[in-house]
Design a protein that fits this description.
Layout: H1 3-17, H2 19-24, H3 30-42, H4 46-59, H5 63-77, H6 84-96, H7 100-116, H8 120-133, H9 138-151, H10 156-187, H11 192-205, H12 209-221, H13 229-245, H14 249-262, H15 266-284
Length: about 280
Amino acid sequence: MTRSWRRSYGLLVALCFLPGLASAQTYSSFREAMAAGQTQLRSRNFAGSQAPLEAALQLAKTDEQRLQAYEALQPAYRQLPDIDKMTEAYEFIVRHTDTTAGRSLSAAAYASFVYQRGQGDKTIERYEARLKQDRDDLPALSALSALYSRTRRDKKERENEVETRLKRLNTEMAVKKAETLEQQAEENKMISAWLWKNAAIAWLEAEDPPRARKAAEKSLQAPPEARTEILTMMWREGLGDVFLAAGDKPAATREYAEAVKVAPSDPLRKNVEKKLGALETAEKK
């Protein structure tokens, strides 16, 4: 075996064991690799989507891009014989999803996945061990909450302990998010209405309706959101949701009505009309 042949053979073996590296070299950018993976997903070729999406993961330059790649990789990872890659994706997604609802959905899906694989109890043991090292381990708390509530009803006391700790952590994260959005709203006058609306929603997530309503009122005091019709509709609808949750039904009705006026399509308009109709029906009772 000549030295050059051995070198070529070694490179071939390395590429076989590093498919992600080989795939990353196939694409010139994150966007190109994601597009290739999404084409496979649309064809329901989940196995075929793995290589280009893992290439996108390697080519990603921001956590936002990595989040997109991991979310897209989940159908492929569900088909693998082990749970390691799905666990890797789940943990990244939970750490980088900025809403309690989004994190909860990811944890529920992951809990269902490991339970179906017969790995529920082992996953509980693994994450309980991690909590001994870090009581605020977000992926561990989220997964344990979902697993205990769905698969271990005999552990109700422990479920309540985990849920209490997770709720506190989620509230702290929501408060931090709301405060950050308020600061951004003060600094970015051109889009302050949109940012104040998002801050109001975050305060609702933090279970602070008075601050949510205050942020919503500041959103209305700012220059109206007018970048596109759909953003204007989403702004008005979001404010309607906030006012409704804060107990101000007249303000919610007003904002939903404004959203209906600017909705750029029938499906979007009908969705808001349902909210408006339900509110008006409730007022008549």
